[in-house]
Amino acid sequence: MAAVGALSRIARLGSRICKNRVTLSGNSQKRGIAACIDPSHGLTDEQKEFQKVAFDFAANEMAPHMAEWDQKEIFPVETMRKAAQLGFGGIYVQPDVGGSGLSRLDTSIIFEALSTGCVSTTAYISIHNMCAWMIDSYGNKEQREKFCPDLCSMEKFASYCLTEPGSGSDAASLLTSAQRKGDHYVLNGSKAFISGGGDTDVYVVMCRTGGKGPKGISCLVVEKGTPGLSFGKKEKKVGWNSQPTRAVIFEDCAVPVANRLGEEGQGFNFAMKGLNGGRINIASCSLGAAHASVQLARDHLLVRKQFGETLSNNQFLQFKLAEMATKLVASRLLIREAAQALQEDRPDAVAICSMAKLFATDECFNICNQALQMHGGYGYLKDYAVQQFVRDIRVHQILEGTNEVMRMIISRNLLSES
Amino acid sequence: MSGRVLVGVKRVIDYAVKIRVKPDNTGVVTDGVKHSMNPFCEIAVEEAVKLKEKKLIKEVVAVSCGPQQSQETIRTALAMGADRGIHVDVSGKDYENLGPLQVSKILAALAKQEDAQLILLGKQAIDDDCNQTGQMTAALLDWPQGTFASEVSLEGDKINLVREIDGGLEHIKINTPAVITADLRLNTPRYATLPNIMKAKKKKIVTVKPADLGVDVTSRLEVLKVEEPPQRQAGMKVETVEDLVVKLKEAGRV
Questions:
Q1: Fewer CB in 10 Å around end: N or C, chain B?
Q2: Closest Cα partner for A58 from A11, A110, A14?
Q3: Which tens digits make up the pLDDT trace of B165-204?
Q4: Domain A36-153: homologous superfamily in CATH
Q5: Among the options A344, A400, A404, A417, which is catalytic?
Q6: How far is the first Cα of chain B from the last one, in angstroms, to the nearest whole number?
């Protein structure tokens, strides 16, 4: 029998309770096999190809290391650079500066698939992509040529700096000031919870160049090593441990005016536009985790026996699994619709991106949590992947705009007079 | 020499899928089941693309025999670096009965038509595990064959090959044109990159029918029945070696 046949036999054995978690069985479970939740339904042939590459990469390069990256808090630079070689460093950045020039829907499909390998790393890759896109879309020729190629190849890594200790949901009230002094801005202030902070090379910073409120905010690109740029301690988190999170501190940090994206006062606008895509990306990461968790739960139910039969014969669990699958597919459809809306710049794009983020992050967390419950005591052990999916996607309900802020955006759209 | 390589790629049920036998025992369930390129075919494509990158050959042509969906498999080969594709359209009953003999006749005809210097195939497909197509194709063309290849190197108009055989590794040298079948350790197939997937869209896939190549695809085999392997029976513990021998004799095993 071919070695590959032997591989497939091992893969089909599933998560046997008494065995250690075999990498191969873990990979097969995440390959999107159960028919009704197959994420390739409705995609074009080309999108299926993108998805296949992302799934294969996730299964081979990420899933085997996901637990180690979490436990040892490793920022997997080499693996991310491999991903960048395939074009994942600037998925929706234009090709003339090294990007892949794909659509928002293509991007969502890719992040969903990569997330099945490691949510935390994929989430960072999506943040990196958002920064690269921001410079690509709003930068001038010099800025695009200076920063984008290195970001797309992940020769350099990027971080996005909006949140501050005093301004999270109320982002427009940010205080980091940028005073114009000749051909430089001098930055003072600090940013909080910055993903990649301290380990990344390029910081896209929202700061106040003008008066109060959103119209006084501009966007500056700050490079690591600039005097006056320093970092806080590495935060200890419940999840997202494969990316370091630190405060980013500016003390009389001089940044060339040439590093400003667009005009003064346009920064908040850029930030909000960036977040629309960011929300789809984060929701897509939740989707991948939920998909993997449904597969894991399903495989567990088929194997674990209590009261003389497999758990899959228990009607309550059958119904629970059905509900999980239904919510998974519903989340997926909403996210893909939002991606289309954003791509086409439809009038409802902002609202539907918020709806997708709200619905998918909440539902997918519940799916992963329920999958953990179905594993019983084993679900609580770090030997089993399901707990990492739960921990990693919990934060998706908080960042890129809390789910409460999503409700604000949606209700404003419903109740505004026009 | 044309510098052209034909690579055969087969669309099979994905290796990670749990196979189920159809209730009427005529075959396995394929409707709605995830399919992908046979893993050994991926290795063959990778080897062909590597040879092209080393500039030892000029063109890689991916070939697949099957229904419309086989074009997806050809696209994957194009995304990995093949230059163009040929889809030999076989569907319905003909496709269900398509086996190594018919495929090798098709490949032989195509090799002559395309003036191929080399045919690269996977050693076997993971659905039928026949391990025959490469050998039959070589026989029909009267070409040398290098099967179970774990190392391939071109030297002028000859090929140095290392074969994985039961006894170990066999080193042979064969003339071109030739048929090579890829074994597991020949290489590690590359991921298609996003730009290559997009470029693949522009590469041409030509569709032909077996009749156009003068090939008769009637099968000489008839599948009588397909069933699951027998359920694994519980074992038995014995106290002594003598007991073991007695039990084995009872079961007719010795």
A1: C
A2: A110
A3: 999 999 999 999 999 999 999 999 999 999 999 999 899 9
A4: Acyl-CoA dehydrogenase/oxidase, N-terminal domain (1.10.540.10)
A5: A400
A6: 58
